[in-house]
């Protein structure tokens, strides 16, 4: 048996595993940075999607409000185009107008102040 | 670089909806607000100014009462001087209150329909005259320093200028009451005529048509009652011009008689509108 050869083989078999120092020293931090970047992109994508959803919802709400406003304008009793509203609406609008015109309610009575102001009460003169 | 770009886009996405929503709201408000609503807003502001002045007057009056009591108690020259200043302040606050009251009244008169043009013009001219007199009084007060001078000016204003102010106020209030009822009465005539043309005349069911016609006759009768009451109110209103002012003329009493005459018109119009609503529901 080739003693030398055996020893060599044994040395080869028993050779210690490759030390970690064989990996480039920057590798772990590079991997960590890469993961962080991926996470960042993921969060931004999620945020953007959320904002897009909010934007769509707001646009939808605004357009609904505008449509409702147009509808209200159509229902508004215009004295020149009264035929656009129903008679019930016209009569009701007049009734509301009449309610605010009660002659016994003074909207703007003359100021409740003293209409005679003397320097001293009369008894002192 | 990419991250910066993404942040800019994100920022835009946050701000854009807010800006768009604000634009949409303001444009919706603008389109929904008729041009005429700017005037009611102005009247509201004028009313608010008037109530603010009224509050200032109350404070000035309170101080005047305190200074009066102090002078009566001590009778010193210093307390008298203080009382003169206080008297001038309360007179100024009162005049300013009258002045700010006339602005919304004038604006309401301008905007109210159903008023005879000549009557409206006369009331507006009287408001202008009253405002001018109050302005002169306001200009006079700061120039006075002695008590007799201030008292004389106060008495002159109360006897000569205040009657004009009160007449302008009650004349305008009477016209506002008449105009509002008259305007609604006119609109009811137009609406019931339209109802006749668009509903009653084209009704094919004879029984329904008969019911409509009877209802409209009732509305016409109520309208006649309202017109008569309005005519009476207008007749009462002429007392503002026919009564001799030196005969203890009381503008508030004239205003009261006008509003009393308007009450039956108000009730008749209420009933006629109830009738019309019932008729429309029975279709």
Write a brief structural summary.
Chain A contains three helices and no strands. With 125 residues, chain A is mostly helical.
Word description of this protein:
Chain A is built from three helices and no strands. Chain A has 125 residues and is mostly helical. Chain B is mainly alpha-helical and 283 residues long. Chain B has a domain at 180-282. Chain B contains eight helices and no strands. Chain B has helices spanning 2-32, 38-74, 77-111, 117-140, 147-200, 206-237, 239-242, 251-281. In chain B, helix 5 (147-200) runs parallel beside helix 8 (251-281). Residues 17-40 of chain B have low confidence and may be disordered. At the A-B interface, helix 2 and helix 3 of A face helix 1, helix 2, helix 3, helix 5 and helix 8 of B.
Global Rg of chain A: 46 Å
- Uncertain residue segments of chain A: 73-84
Q: Report helical residue fraction of chain B.
A: over 70%
Distance from first to last alpha carbon of chain A: 150 Å
Order of helices and strands of chain A: HHH
Average predicted confidence as pLDDT of chain B: 88
Oligomer classification: heterodimer
Summing up helix and strand content along with how strands pair, one would put the structural category of chain A as mainly alpha
Uncertain segments of chain B? 17-40
Biggest interchain interface, per-side counts: A-B, 50 and 74 residues
Our measurement of the CA-to-CA distance between the termini of chain B, rounded to an integer number of angstroms, reads 72 Å
- Portion of residues in beta strands of chain A equals under 5%
Q: Please give the largest β-sheet of chain A.
A: none
Return the average pLDDT of chain A rounded to an integer: 75
What's the total number of strands of chain A? 0
Overall geometry of chain A comes to: elongated
How many strands, what sense, and barrel or not for the largest sheet of chain B?
Answer: none
């Amino acid at each position: 048996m080739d003693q030398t050869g055996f020893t060599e083989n044994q040395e080869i078999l028993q050779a210690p595993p490759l030390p970690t120092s064989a990996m480039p020293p920057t590798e772990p931090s590079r991997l960590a940075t890469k993961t962080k970047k991926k996470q960042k992109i993921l969060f931004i994508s999620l945020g953007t999607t959320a904002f897009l959803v909010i934007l769509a919802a707001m646009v939808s709400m605004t357009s609904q409000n505008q449509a409702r406003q147009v509808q209200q304008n159509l229902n508004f009793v215009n004295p020149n185009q009264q035929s656009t509203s129903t008679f019930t609406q016209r009569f009701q609008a007049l009734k509301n107008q009449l309610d605010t015109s009660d002659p016994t309610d003074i909207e703007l009575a003359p100021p409740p102040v003293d209409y005679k102001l003397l320097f001293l009460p009369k008894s002192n003169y | 670089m990419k991250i910066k770009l993404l942040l800019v886009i994100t920022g835009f996405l946050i701000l854009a909806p807010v800006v768009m929503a604000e634009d949409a709201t303001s444009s919706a408000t603008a389109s929904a607000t008729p041009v005429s609503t700017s005037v009611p807003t102005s009247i509201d502001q004028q009313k608010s100014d008037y109530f603010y002045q009224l509050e200032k007057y109350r404070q000035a009056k309170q101080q005047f009462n305190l200074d009066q009591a102090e002078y009566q108690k001590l009778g010193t020259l210093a307390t008298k001087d203080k009382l003169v200043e206080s008297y001038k302040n309360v007179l100024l606050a009162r005049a300013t209150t009258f002045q700010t009251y006339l602005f919304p009244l004038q604006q309401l008169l301008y905007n109210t329909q159903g008023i005879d043009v000549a009557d409206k013009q006369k009331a507006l001219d009287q408001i202008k005259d009253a405002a001018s007199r109050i302005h002169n009084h306001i200009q006079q007060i700061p120039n006075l320093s002695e008590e007799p001078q201030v008292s004389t000016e106060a008495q002159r204003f109360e006897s000569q200028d205040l009657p004009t102010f009160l007449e302008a106020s009650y004349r305008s209030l009477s016209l506002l009451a008449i105009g509002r009822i008259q305007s609604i009465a006119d609109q009811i005539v137009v609406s019931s005529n339209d109802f006749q043309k668009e509903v009653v005349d084209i009704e094919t069911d004879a029984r329904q048509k008969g019911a409509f016609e009877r209802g409209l006759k009732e509305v016409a009768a109520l309208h006649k009652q309202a017109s008569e009451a309005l005519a009476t109110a207008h007749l009462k209103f002429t007392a503002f011009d026919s009564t001799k002012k030196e005969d203890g003329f009381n503008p508030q009493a004239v205003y009261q008689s006008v509003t009393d005459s308007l009450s039956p018109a108000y009730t008749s119009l209420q009933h006629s509108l109830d009738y019309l609503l019932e008729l429309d529901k029975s279709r």
